[in-house]
Amino acid sequence: MISVVLAEDMHMVRGALVALLDIETDIEIVAEVDSGNDILPTVFAHRPDVAVIDIDLPGMDGLTAAAEVHEKLPSCRTLILTSLGQPGNLRRALEAQVSGFLLKDAPPSKLSDAIRRIYAGERVIDPELALDAWSARENPLTARETEVLRLAAEGAEAGDIAGRLFLSVGTVRNYLTTIVIKLGARNRVDALRIAREQGWL
To answer: Which one of 1, 59, 172, 185 is CB 3.0 to 4.6 Å from 191, fit for a cystine?
Structure first.
Protein backbone atom coordinates (compact mmCIF):
# COMPACT_ATOMS: atom_id res chain seq x y z
CA MET A 1 0.00 0.00 0.00
CA ILE A 2 1.38 3.42 -1.02
CA SER A 3 0.73 5.98 1.73
CA VAL A 4 0.04 9.56 0.64
CA VAL A 5 -0.24 12.95 2.35
CA LEU A 6 -2.31 15.43 0.33
CA ALA A 7 -1.76 19.21 0.58
CA GLU A 8 -4.47 21.25 -1.19
CA ASP A 9 -6.22 24.34 0.18
CA MET A 10 -9.35 24.29 -2.01
CA HIS A 11 -11.84 22.02 -0.22
CA MET A 12 -13.74 20.96 -3.34
CA VAL A 13 -10.55 20.08 -5.24
CA ARG A 14 -9.14 18.23 -2.23
CA GLY A 15 -12.38 16.28 -1.85
CA ALA A 16 -12.32 15.32 -5.53
CA LEU A 17 -8.69 14.16 -5.26
CA VAL A 18 -9.46 12.09 -2.16
CA ALA A 19 -12.46 10.48 -3.92
CA LEU A 20 -10.32 9.79 -6.98
CA LEU A 21 -7.52 8.14 -5.04
CA ASP A 22 -9.89 6.21 -2.72
CA ILE A 23 -10.88 4.11 -5.74
CA GLU A 24 -7.30 2.83 -6.06
CA THR A 25 -6.72 -0.37 -4.07
CA ASP A 26 -2.96 0.22 -3.65
CA ILE A 27 -3.02 3.93 -2.60
CA GLU A 28 -4.10 5.23 0.82
CA ILE A 29 -4.40 8.90 1.82
CA VAL A 30 -3.17 8.97 5.43
CA ALA A 31 -3.59 12.73 5.99
CA GLU A 32 -4.86 15.92 4.33
CA VAL A 33 -3.68 19.49 4.99
CA ASP A 34 -4.78 22.87 3.61
CA SER A 35 -1.72 24.99 4.51
CA GLY A 36 1.92 24.86 3.50
CA ASN A 37 2.92 25.33 7.14
CA ASP A 38 1.27 22.01 8.06
CA ILE A 39 3.07 19.88 5.46
CA LEU A 40 6.33 19.18 7.30
CA PRO A 41 4.77 18.34 10.72
CA THR A 42 2.20 16.09 9.00
CA VAL A 43 4.83 14.33 6.92
CA PHE A 44 6.93 13.72 10.06
CA ALA A 45 3.87 12.41 11.93
CA HIS A 46 2.74 9.98 9.20
CA ARG A 47 5.98 9.26 7.27
CA PRO A 48 4.15 8.74 3.95
CA ASP A 49 5.71 7.31 0.81
CA VAL A 50 4.53 10.27 -1.30
CA ALA A 51 3.39 13.83 -0.56
CA VAL A 52 1.09 15.35 -3.21
CA ILE A 53 1.47 19.12 -2.87
CA ASP A 54 -0.23 22.09 -4.54
CA ILE A 55 2.14 25.01 -5.29
CA ASP A 56 -0.17 27.84 -4.31
CA LEU A 57 -0.91 27.27 -0.62
CA PRO A 58 -1.51 29.68 2.26
CA GLY A 59 1.50 30.01 4.56
CA MET A 60 4.59 28.33 3.13
CA ASP A 61 4.28 27.80 -0.64
CA GLY A 62 4.26 24.24 -1.94
CA LEU A 63 7.69 24.35 -3.58
CA THR A 64 9.40 25.61 -0.42
CA ALA A 65 7.61 22.90 1.57
CA ALA A 66 8.63 20.24 -0.98
CA ALA A 67 12.28 21.32 -0.69
CA GLU A 68 12.06 21.02 3.13
CA VAL A 69 10.49 17.55 2.87
CA HIS A 70 13.29 16.43 0.54
CA GLU A 71 15.94 17.81 2.90
CA LYS A 72 14.49 16.58 6.20
CA LEU A 73 12.69 13.37 5.19
CA PRO A 74 14.17 12.22 1.85
CA SER A 75 12.34 8.87 2.06
CA CYS A 76 9.12 10.78 1.29
CA ARG A 77 8.92 11.58 -2.42
CA THR A 78 7.05 14.69 -3.55
CA LEU A 79 4.61 15.25 -6.42
CA ILE A 80 3.66 18.83 -7.27
CA LEU A 81 0.09 19.06 -8.53
CA THR A 82 -0.76 22.51 -9.87
CA SER A 83 -2.77 24.63 -12.25
CA LEU A 84 0.30 26.92 -12.59
CA GLY A 85 2.10 25.37 -15.53
CA GLN A 86 4.67 28.10 -16.14
CA PRO A 87 8.18 26.88 -17.02
CA GLY A 88 9.65 28.89 -14.13
CA ASN A 89 7.58 26.86 -11.65
CA LEU A 90 8.88 23.62 -13.13
CA ARG A 91 12.47 24.88 -12.86
CA ARG A 92 11.89 25.83 -9.22
CA ALA A 93 10.33 22.42 -8.60
CA LEU A 94 13.33 20.62 -10.09
CA GLU A 95 15.65 22.74 -7.93
CA ALA A 96 13.55 21.65 -4.93
CA GLN A 97 14.27 18.01 -5.92
CA VAL A 98 10.62 17.08 -6.46
CA SER A 99 9.92 13.65 -7.92
CA GLY A 100 7.03 14.74 -10.08
CA PHE A 101 5.23 17.74 -11.57
CA LEU A 102 1.70 17.28 -12.86
CA LEU A 103 -0.94 19.77 -14.04
CA LYS A 104 -4.40 19.64 -12.45
CA ASP A 105 -6.06 19.44 -15.86
CA ALA A 106 -4.29 16.14 -16.64
CA PRO A 107 -6.57 13.09 -17.03
CA PRO A 108 -7.47 11.60 -13.60
CA SER A 109 -5.70 8.30 -14.36
CA LYS A 110 -2.41 10.21 -14.68
CA LEU A 111 -2.41 11.12 -10.98
CA SER A 112 -2.56 7.56 -9.64
CA ASP A 113 -0.08 6.46 -12.33
CA ALA A 114 2.30 9.28 -11.34
CA ILE A 115 2.08 8.32 -7.65
CA ARG A 116 2.92 4.70 -8.47
CA ARG A 117 5.83 5.68 -10.71
CA ILE A 118 7.23 8.13 -8.14
CA TYR A 119 6.93 5.46 -5.43
CA ALA A 120 8.92 3.13 -7.73
CA GLY A 121 11.71 5.72 -7.90
CA GLU A 122 10.92 7.35 -11.24
CA ARG A 123 10.66 11.07 -11.93
CA VAL A 124 7.39 12.09 -13.58
CA ILE A 125 7.12 15.38 -15.47
CA ASP A 126 4.61 16.46 -18.11
CA PRO A 127 6.65 16.20 -21.36
CA GLU A 128 5.21 19.36 -22.98
CA LEU A 129 5.95 21.37 -19.86
CA ALA A 130 9.49 19.96 -19.72
CA LEU A 131 10.04 21.09 -23.31
CA ASP A 132 8.70 24.58 -22.51
CA ALA A 133 10.99 24.81 -19.47
CA TRP A 134 13.98 23.75 -21.57
CA SER A 135 13.46 26.65 -23.97
CA ALA A 136 12.15 29.18 -21.43
CA ARG A 137 13.92 32.35 -20.45
CA GLU A 138 16.16 32.12 -17.36
CA ASN A 139 15.17 34.20 -14.35
CA PRO A 140 17.54 37.20 -14.48
CA LEU A 141 16.75 38.25 -10.91
CA THR A 142 18.94 37.44 -7.92
CA ALA A 143 17.44 35.66 -4.91
CA ARG A 144 17.28 38.99 -3.03
CA GLU A 145 15.60 40.77 -5.97
CA THR A 146 13.07 37.95 -6.23
CA GLU A 147 12.37 38.25 -2.49
CA VAL A 148 11.83 42.02 -2.80
CA LEU A 149 9.49 41.52 -5.77
CA ARG A 150 7.57 38.77 -3.95
CA LEU A 151 6.92 41.12 -1.03
CA ALA A 152 5.89 43.88 -3.45
CA ALA A 153 3.48 41.39 -5.04
CA GLU A 154 1.87 40.93 -1.60
CA GLY A 155 1.20 44.69 -1.56
CA ALA A 156 4.07 45.73 0.72
CA GLU A 157 5.40 49.27 0.22
CA ALA A 158 9.13 50.08 0.08
CA GLY A 159 9.18 50.99 3.79
CA ASP A 160 7.50 47.69 4.79
CA ILE A 161 9.87 45.67 2.59
CA ALA A 162 12.86 47.51 4.08
CA GLY A 163 11.69 46.68 7.61
CA ARG A 164 11.08 43.02 6.85
CA LEU A 165 14.41 42.49 5.06
CA PHE A 166 16.49 44.76 7.32
CA LEU A 167 17.41 47.07 4.44
CA SER A 168 17.21 50.83 3.96
CA VAL A 169 14.25 52.23 2.01
CA GLY A 170 16.73 53.59 -0.58
CA THR A 171 18.20 50.12 -1.11
CA VAL A 172 14.72 48.64 -1.61
CA ARG A 173 13.89 51.36 -4.16
CA ASN A 174 17.17 50.60 -5.96
CA TYR A 175 16.25 46.90 -6.04
CA LEU A 176 12.81 47.70 -7.48
CA THR A 177 14.34 49.94 -10.18
CA THR A 178 16.87 47.22 -11.06
CA ILE A 179 14.08 44.62 -11.27
CA VAL A 180 12.06 46.77 -13.70
CA ILE A 181 15.16 47.28 -15.89
CA LYS A 182 16.23 43.60 -15.82
CA LEU A 183 12.75 42.39 -16.81
CA GLY A 184 12.37 45.02 -19.53
CA ALA A 185 9.18 46.14 -17.81
CA ARG A 186 7.40 49.49 -18.09
CA ASN A 187 6.95 49.81 -14.32
CA ARG A 188 6.68 47.80 -11.12
CA VAL A 189 3.18 46.45 -11.96
CA ASP A 190 4.42 45.28 -15.37
CA ALA A 191 7.46 43.66 -13.70
CA LEU A 192 5.11 41.74 -11.40
CA ARG A 193 3.05 40.58 -14.39
CA ILE A 194 6.16 39.37 -16.26
CA ALA A 195 7.56 37.55 -13.22
CA ARG A 196 4.22 35.86 -12.49
CA GLU A 197 3.74 34.76 -16.11
CA GLN A 198 7.22 33.24 -16.14
CA GLY A 199 6.62 31.47 -12.80
CA TRP A 200 9.51 33.26 -11.05
CA LEU A 201 7.48 34.26 -7.97
So the answer is: 185
